[in-house]
Structures are given as structure tokens and as C-alpha cells.
Design a protein that fits this description.
Distance between the termini: 25 Å
Order of helices and strands: HHH
Low-confidence stretches: none
Radius of gyration: 15 Å
Largest sheet: none
Number of helices: 3
Number of strands: 0
Mean pLDDT: 87
Length: 83
């Protein structure tokens, strides 16, 4: 996945997150439904940001950013990072 595609996906996820929150505020969405979808979006966003950081790090190191391991890492790996 190219950097432009990753950034587009991040933008889509953030927009969807905002739409969900707006729907919830208008009582068009149940709390459990909102919470479940927001959790999935959060994980997907974390995966995108991780992928983007790894691609940029490879570029800075003079390596090919599109290597075989250049895909998103599994959710349990990405979500296990310490901040």
C-alpha cells in the first residue's frame, strides 16, 4: 500500500468516526453499536498509523518501503504497543 493510500484510509476512518459520534448525539445509534464500531475504527487507525511510520522509517533508512512485511500488523500486535 502506498503512502497516499494509507493517508486516504486514515482520513476515511476519521470521517467515519465523526459521523458515528454525530449519529449517536442525535440518538440515531445505540451506545453498544457505536462503541463496537468505534473500537474497530480505533484498531484500524492504529494499524494504518503503524504502517505509515514503518514505511517512512524504511524510506529514511534508504530501504524499499514496499517490502513483503510492509502490510498492516495484526491488531493484537499493534494494540499491545506501549505509548
Amino acid at each position: 500500500m502506498e503512502e497516499k493510500e494509507i493517508l486516504e484510509r486514515i482520513t476515511e476512518y476519521v470521517s467515519e468516526e465523526q459521523r458515528l459520534r454525530d449519529r449517536y448525539q442525535r440518538d440515531e445509534l445505540g451506545r453498544e453499536e457505536e462503541h463496537a464500531r468505534l473500537e474497530r475504527l480505533e484498531v484500524a487507525l492504529d494499524q494504518c498509523w503503524d504502517l505509515l511510520r514503518r514505511r517512512r522509517a524504511r524510506l529514511e533508512a534508504g530501504l524499499d518501503p514496499g517490502t513483503e512485511d510492509a502490510g498492516p500488523r495484526p491488531p493484537d500486535e499493534v494494540e499491545g504497543y506501549l505509548q
